[in-house]
Write a structure and sequence with these properties.
38% of the residues lie in helices and 20% in strands. It is of the alpha/beta class. The protein has two domains: 267 residues, Aldehyde Dehydrogenase, Chain A, domain 1 (3-Layer(aba) Sandwich); 187 residues, Aldehyde Dehydrogenase, Chain A, domain 2, CATH 3.40.309.10. Helix 4 packs across helix 5. It is globular and about 75 Å long. The chain starts with 27 loop residues before the first strand and ends with a strand. It binds NADP nicotinamide-adenine-dinucleotide phosphate (NAP) and magnesium ion. The site of magnesium ion has 5 residues, from strand 3.
């Protein structure tokens, strides 16, 4: 993934001249129309590669959120065009959305790279096509969502069946690391089930959600089915969580905000699903193909600058394979240089903001204070944009803060272990449980550990793969509810039981 970098910041100008993307001032998208915030307030979204302002974005207050929720409610109600739409036509609309994402892929990838600082290689090869695929996958679902006829104690005297119904108005709050992909993971299954949506993108990355809103108009999605409210979490996001007209909140983001959302949703007993952070163990046994394990370990932590909830950020290496693994890891990591995110050869872009960069850099200091040593990297690159060297900390022990806290940046903590028992015990010794990877040639050991690791996803001899058909989500503080696959259909539908007394 990340090892063939040739373009460095020194070689390439960071003057960004996108060919197609032309971000315009962002408005709110409510009831099928782009509107200013009632307060007319705006905020700015910036390009992390330069720190420059891209464009102003409307800041939704609680009154705008209320309008968006009302629009979504109206579109959901009995008799509405969306409510009366056949599953076949709903599926076609989802398919149309996927086609429109593909038709505008180049522009969407540029917008994503401008807003996030991630390499265009990643946004054009992963983020945008995977978002399109997500809509394709869920386009097949509306015609397959069905209840059951159930056996019951009344025998032939009663008919009992279930109906699968949409939950209603869904508030969806997403983070800045994979903006369009996170939108797709949430919007596609919710729409497939017949819900309506008020989407709150992260304040740092609203551009692709707003462009997607235009595409919903082009696709012919009825007005009010999909709405976007841009703004800040504690104001715009919190207003959505508190709004009594919202039936469900789906959230991806940090643990702290996840807790806040549960508290906020409790007042109105909203359904809640949470995808939170991680500190995923990547466990390397000495009997693994260490060369491949080291290569994948780099992608596992440095893809998307390490700004990944599933980042393999705790690399456990069995002592007998430690030196060999580390020599490959060190050699490959040293070759990685950050570059202009819009350059096609760049494999390591900028972090999302200066504030976040400083937070990540501070963890390097914390690690050193705790007794870890910096094997590679450990510093900012230049002063323009928010670039950081890929960083590997050695001599880490699992109780250190750099092993327990989510850094969410290009920092790997490498921890030595002696045997399988210690490896599994320490891997599980974490508040998180989003994902885990393990590398071994012993299939018996691999499957045994897969059962023992407390994580929503376990990768054996691979890392970081996801698929729209495969459930994804966390154990422990990494959240609850499973997105993607059939699981997301369950997240976005209610089951209604109907009893018919056949004697009457
Ligand atoms: P964040 O601060 O939790 O924000 C996530 C979203 O929640 C943003 O849209 C944010 O708005 C909004 N928000 C913040 N405070 C809120 C509140 N009080 N009420 C309602 N909404 C609120 O996280 P982030 O900084 O965007 O992303 C990094 C974190 O997300 C990491 O911890 C990472 O692990 C986690 N993450 C998890 C997954 C996963 O699948 N499990 C995926 C990606 C990221 P603003 O942007 O305006 O603050
Ligand atoms: Mg931005």
């Amino acid at each position: 993934m990340a090892e063939t970098l040739t373009a460095s910041l020194e070689e390439i100008s960071v003057e960004l001249k996108p060919a197609k993307a032309n971000p315009k001032p962002g408005k709110l998208f409510i009831g099928g129309e782009f509107v200013d915030a009632l307060s007319e307030k705006t905020f700015e979204t910036r390009n992390p590669a330069t720190g420059a302002v891209i464009t102003p974005i409307a800041e939704a207050g609680p009154e705008d959120v209320e309008l968006a929720v009302r629009a979504a409610r109206k579109a959901f109600e009995d008799g509405s065009e969306w409510r009366n739409m056949s599953p076949r036509d709903r599926g076609r609309l989802l398919w149309k959305l996927s086609e429109l994402i593909r038709a505008n892929a180049e522009e969407l990838a540029e917008l994503e790279t401008l807003d996030t600082g991630k390499p265009i290689f990643e946004s054009s090869r992963f983020d945008i096509p995977l978002a399109a695929e997500c809509f394709e996958y869920y386009a097949g679902w509306p015609t397959k969502i069905a209840g059951e006829t159930l056996a019951n104690s009344a025998g032939g005297e009663a008919l009992v069946y279930t109906l699968k119904e949409p939950v209603g108005v869904c508030g969806q709050i997403i983070p800045w690391n994979f903006p369009l992909q996170m939108l797709a993971w949430k919007a596609a299954p919710a729409l497939a089930c017949g819900n309506t949506i008020v989407m709150k993108p992260a304040e740092q990355t609203p551009l692709t959600a707003l462009r997607f809103a235009e595409l919903t108009l082009e696709a012919g999605l009825p007005a009010g089915v999909f709405n976007v409210v841009t703004g800040f979490g504690p104001k715009t996001g919190a207003a959505l969580v508190a709004n009594p007209g919202v039936d469900k909140i789906a959230f991806t983001g940090s643990v702290e905000v996840g807790k806040e959302i549960m508290r906020g949703a409790a007042g109105t007993l909203k359904r809640v699903s949470l995808e939170l952070g991680g500190k995923s163990p990547n466990i390397i046994f000495a009997d693994a193909d260490l060369e491949t394990a080291a290569k994948f370990a780099l992608g596992g932590i440095f893809f998307n600058q390490g700004e990944m909830c599933t980042a393999g950020s705790r690399i456990f290496v069995e002592e007998a394979g430690y030196d060999q693994f580390m020599s490959v890891m060190r050699a490959r990591a040293q070759k990685m240089v950050a570059g202009d995110p819009l350059h096609p050869k760049t494999r390591l872009g900028a972090l999302i903001s200066e504030e976040h960069l400083n937070r990540v850099l501070n963890y390097v200091t914390v690690g050193k204070e705790e007794g870890a040593s910096v094997a590679i990297g450990g510093a900012r690159i230049g002063t323009k944009g928010y670039f950081m060297k890929p960083t590997v900390l050695e001599g880490v022990t699992n109780e250190m803060r750099v092993a327990q806290e989510e850094i969410f940046g290009p920092v790997a903590s490498v921890i030595k272990f002696m045997d399988m028992e210690e490896g599994v015990r320490e891997a599980n010794n974490s508040q998180f449980g989003l994902a885990a990877a393990l590398w071994t040639r012993d299939i018996k050991k691999a499957h045994a550990i897969a059962r023992r690791v407390k994580a929503g996803t376990v990768w054996i001899n691979t890392i970081s793969t996801t698929d729209n058909a495969v459930p994804f989500g966390g154990y422990k503080s990494s959240g609850f509810g499973r997105e993607l696959g059939k699981s997301a259909i369950d997240l976005y539908s209610e089951t209604k039981t109907v009893w018919v007394d056949l004697n009457q």
